[in-house]
């Protein structure tokens, strides 16, 4: 598992490769099948879900893939929708 530490200045540090990374880098790790865990470097709190949501948000800003209806369904139905998305 690749552990990414998030600092208060929002910088992300990959403890596996021992260097700072971007959200795009983290997205690439996930696309390549890496297990990724993002933690707050001080408290150790798990920030993985929030970071992955941020990646989706940034990618949707650039080019919408889910569309308004897909996002609306996620909000309306929560996690139960993730298996039936197109």
Major sheet description: 4 strands, mixed
State the end-to-end CA separation.
Answer: 28 Å
- Helix proportion range: 40-55%
What is the strand arrangement across the widest sheet?
A: 3-2-1-4
* Helical run tally: 3
Number of structurally distinct domains? 1
Give the overall average pLDDT: 89
What is the molecular shape? globular
Q: How do the helices and strands follow one another from N- to C-terminus?
A: EEEHEHH
Bin the strand percentage.
15-25%
- What is the count of β-strands? 4
**Category by helix and strand content:** alpha+beta
Please give the radius of gyration in angstroms.
Answer: 14 Å
Which stretches are poorly predicted, pLDDT < 50 over at least 5 residues? none
Description:
By secondary structure, the protein is an alpha+beta fold. It has one domain (2-81). It is built from three helices and four strands; from the N terminus they run E-E-E-H-E-H-H. It has a four-stranded mixed sheet. Helix 1 (23-31) crosses helix 2 (48-62). The radius of gyration is 14 Å and the shape is globular. The protein starts with a strand and ends in a 9-residue tail after the last helix. The model has no long low-confidence stretch (mean pLDDT 89).
